[in-house]
Structure prediction request, 403 residues.
Amino acid sequence: MLIAGGGAAGLSCAVQLSLQGLTRFLRVLIIEPRSRYERDRTWCFWNVIPHPFEDCVSDSWHTWSVSDGQRRIDRSWPGLVYQHLPADAFYEKATSLLAADPNVELRLGDRVKRVESKPEDNQALAMTDEGPLTASLVLDSRPRGARLELDRSSRNAPGHFLQHFHGKTVRSEKPVFSAGVATIMDFVEARNDGIHFIYLLPYDERTALIEDTWFSDEPRPVESYEEEISRYLADRFDVVRYEALHSETGAIPMDPRPIEPPDGPRQIDIGTRGGAARPSTGYAFLSIQRFAAALARGLTGWAHDPSQEPPRPPRHYSRRSVFLDRVFVSHLARTPEAGPDLFLRLFDRVRPDALARFLFDGGLPLDDLRVMAALPAAPLIGETLRQYAALPGAGEPREPSVP
Ligand SMILES: Cc1cc2nc3c(=O)[nH]c(=O)nc-3n(C[C@H](O)[C@H](O)[C@H](O)COP(=O)(O)OP(=O)(O)OC[C@H]3O[C@@H](n4cnc5c(N)ncnc54)[C@H](O)[C@@H]3O)c2cc1C
Prediction:
């Protein structure tokens, strides 16, 4: 088996294949262009889904807040914590686990240029910088490039954003941060061309990760995020001098439109490429962990005889969540200026455990109802009807059902 990309999804899938014993029957080769791993990002999430990297969590917060300058909502819930996992700890643990498995090879400094199906040979062909490779299955996590184009095909077309951000870990000269509270969203302004907020994770009173975050159509130049961070530190905390320790930049699709499937049964798209990023939030790490474990379970029988066609991969999100995200993101895209109020309502009115489960699609239908009940009814009902009407096949005569 070949895994294109040794990032969060590629390494997580390889770890699960190894932990669940599939590598006793299959050899796994991971192709990754970078030559070494470093702390290129931090992953945060509420502790709602178990995974093998729990011991890599370095910080956690029992209270989190959202605010818009006038109102601030602080929430906490027994047993629920917002956790922070630095990427270098994840890479270190994943690569050590894989190095101990003789049937897994991580090849750094190589790149997959193209993947093709070879149905006649029950294989897929990957063209790499170092030459062609065939595999019984390719798990592909290569970034697709964000789809920025706006869909104007119809008035009801689902809305979508790019969540783009740049963050810095800063150390201020004076103690200014409330170390016990993670700021999930501090809306610095209401805009009609997107949503703009600051995300701030304090590690102690002087050190914090602070990210300037936008939901809009296009990323901005790095200097513009940096200016926003400096302005925020000066306005909110009266901090003008600080040391910058790490930085990270990202652009995550918030796109509820269906993702193009790969072109053959011997290819499975994983990670962000395969739809792991939840359209309404951009969170992907826990979904990647849940998917990797389910994928390995599903492939267990096939691993004994890879000449058979592999089973279909698990879904990242339930159909119900996909539809709710489509309604939510389309409503936000239509009225971005209402975004701060919508998010404040969610954190204020929904029980934190239900909201955390909802955000990671680990929830019950009752959680969805709690979330829907917290949002303004009239515009959401309108958007639900619009999105229902825009679903492929809606309004067409139904095929007679087979008795
Ligand atoms: C800065 C940042 C912060 C984030 N924070 C959070 C968070 O707090 N919580 C959360 O849930 N999600 C977060 N996300 C979203 C998501 O969890 C991450 O993007 C996650 O890394 C996605 O995993 P992935 O495997 O799809 O992509 P990646 O981890 O980016 O892995 C893709 C891999 O493919 C490799 N690659 C590229 N081109 C090729 C090629 N041609 N051939 C082979 N390999 C190739 C890349 O080098 C990379 O290693 C964040 C994303 C970013 C960018």
